[in-house]
Amino acid sequence: MKKLLFVILSGLICASCTQSEQNFLETEDAYFGLTPPGLIPEVFAPGIVSDSSWAEHCHVAISPKGDEIYWSAWSSKYPPADTSMKNSEQIYFSEFKEGVWTKPAIAEFIKDHLTCLNGGPSFSPDGNRLYFYSTGIPGGLGEKDVWYVERTDYGWSKLINASEPLNTKDGDWTPSFNPNGNAYHMGNYAYNRNEKPLKFRYSDGKFSKPDTVIIHPDFRPVWAFYVSPDESYLIFSGLNREVGYGSLDIYICFKTTENEWGTPINMGDQINTDKMERFPTVSPDGKYLFFMRHTETQDFFWVSTEIIKNIKEKA
Question: What is residue 86's three-state secondary structure?
Answer without folding.
Answer: coil
